[in-house]
Amino acid sequence: MSFGTLYTHKPNPRTTAILAIAKAHGLKLDIVYAERENKENYEKLLQINPLGQVPVFVGADGHVMTECIAIALYITSQSDTTTLLGSSRRDYYEILRWMSLANSDLLPAIGGVVLPLIGKHLAVRKNTEDCLRAFYTDCKLLENHLQKNKYLVGDQLTLADFFTVGTIVFAFVVFHKVLHAEYPRLTEWFNEIYEMPMFKDVAGDLHLANIPYPTLPEDK
């Protein structure tokens, strides 16, 4: 029996961790790809979320939930034995902290750099240089944190790790050379999480691109 329906795009960095954890927990989700080009599915999406944003989860009981962090936490909490939500109240809020950073800072910065390379643009007014600078600032933050911690929340693997890796996959596809050179611990952590079967089974093989990518003026 289906646990519910997930409206998303293919691919969608904000959905990868949700799908991985649902699969690991044995929760069957019906997937609806609702890009604007798919008019029928997009109309269905607008009926449940007038903003037209994904992901959106519709439970088997008809309950509608929007926002990727809320959906990820809800799916993860369906297991009474999961350790992905930490082992203390502090852990839980640290998980929220890193998920929020990945969603609101990392992903928009990555999108502002990567999307123009494939002919798309962010909805916000932020140029490539600003996005790239913000992305590297976040990478430095993660690098410094991961040099002192095995995972984002101490030494325990949590939802925050899967969620954050899901948001930065496209950055590693494009910027893998500079990330490997400048942020070795971040790269090591990313590869460890990505190669975990429960994540890779959903995300698929990582295909690194060898294409020209933007640089900052001081790097030229």
TrEMBL record:
Instruction: Indicate the segments forming the GST C-terminal domain, all copies.
Output: 88-216
**Entry-linked SUPFAM superfamilies:** GST C-terminal domain-like (SSF47616), Thioredoxin-like (SSF52833)
Signal peptide (residue range): none
One Pfam family here: GST_N
**Cross-referenced InterPro entries, in alphabetical order?**
EF-GSTs (IPR050802), Glutathione-S-Trfase_C-like (IPR010987), Glutathione-S-Trfase_C_sf (IPR036282), Glutathione_S-Trfase (IPR040079), Glutathione_S-Trfase_N (IPR004045), GST_C (IPR004046), Thioredoxin-like_sf (IPR036249)
One Gene Ontology cellular component: cytoplasm
**Domain (GST N-terminal) ranges:** 2-83
At the top level of its lineage, which domain of life is listed? Answer: Eukaryota
Q: Which family does it belong to?
A: Belongs to the GST superfamily.
Annotated protein name in UniProt: Glutathione S-transferase
